[in-house]
What does this fold into?
Amino acid sequence: MKQPSIQQREFADRRERLAAQLPINSAVIVPSAKLQHRNSDVESPFRQDSDFYYLSGFDEPEALIVIVKDQAVVTYHLFCQPRDPEMEIWNGYRSGPEGVKIDFLADKAFSIEEVDERLPELLDGIDSIHFCMGTCYQTESRVESWLTSMRKKRRQGVTVPSRLIELSSVLHEMRLIKSVQEIEVMRSAGEISAQAHVRAMQICCPGLMEYQLEAEIIHHFMQNGCRLPAYSSIVGGGKNGCVLHYVSNNSMLREGDLVLIDAGCETDYYAGDITRTFPVNGRFNDAQRALYELVLKAQMACIEELKPGIPWEQTHDTSVRVITEGLVELGLLKGNVGELIDCGAYKAFYMHRLGHWLGMDVHDVGDYKVAGEWRLLEPGMVMTVEPGIYVAPDNENVDARWRGIGIRIEDDVLITDNGCEVLTGLVPKTVDEIETLMATTRH
Ligand code: GLY
Ligand code: MN
Ligand code: MN
It folds into this structure.
């Protein structure tokens, strides 16, 4: 099934917009991801680095982007694996330098095998080199080795760049604000992820293994053109729902328990990220319903507030207030709401933040504070809204009926000119909607 995708013209626009923000005589360096060894001679499925893909749309390993802004001229160099008929028999097609000029609009392209020879030449006369620091690609040491070889040639007139500058402040700000094409792709990721959660509700029943629900979700992703999930799916029945990063997914789902599913697909490199929590047998019991409705109340209150101009932190604070008030009303916390918030008592039940930026990475790039202040939301930002309540199975301070209940409700939300758009609204989340779906369409 064909999903919307980012066109080559947009990748070129991104490179132009990036270059326009850089000083003259500068170079940008962005390495591709590496193949990850899994075990023996098996590799994990390759997934391109998000920054690299954002600027190129090129999904082969062993590649390097070098954008040189020399006075007013910007040149896009792409180093890639050379064509190799023998290797291609084993590992598949490679574009090669000629191919990336045609298909990926590189101005100049070279074999990656030439990178150590060519980089010192490309960087000659450049003032500043811009790259993302502290990543796992060892870019610092590669740049350092190119500079070292340049320093040895100073007497031959080579001029060595004098400044190494962090690229993320420019590149990740660009990634934070989504374009029309990106929003279209993210709507699709939200829709397919939502449909997968509906499928999980429709097949869930006591006795199923958690990984069988996961299988249904992955099946739906793949049947709809999404080769990979955006992150490891969490399917936690009963008290497993209280383990925030539970990914074992190997327990049996039991009558009377809830199941928490946090799963989203990746569509053309953009993530969906949805959590739903629902009863394994299709009916909430009283304790489950009370806590569920409280999490939902917090989530809806936050979504209601989202619009341009509000500080990032505001909705987190709203979620803390609604959840703390509710926990006091239900008797899980005792005391004055303001004091319970001030001393962080709510963190025994709600220990994570409300959400995060969402985009090519599930926990996407972009700063949350600017000049020391929580940043204001702007149209084109996409974030998750995912409050939760998790009552530890061994929490002796609360009545036994609450223990081992873990609930999170997560949607993906685009900030629009006047408010927001929920990208994942297709999957039910009120108690009535969930119970009705499970009572009427389960098979
Ligand atoms: N699925 C990861 C998260 O919700 O943050
Ligand atoms: Mn999330
Ligand atoms: Mn999630």
Summary: Residues 8-174 form a domain with the Creatine Amidinohydrolase; Chain A, domain 1 fold (CATH 3.40.350.10). Residues 180-203 form the longest helix (24 residues). The pocket of manganese (II) ion (ligand 3) is lined by residues 262, 273, 275, 410 (CB under 6 Å).
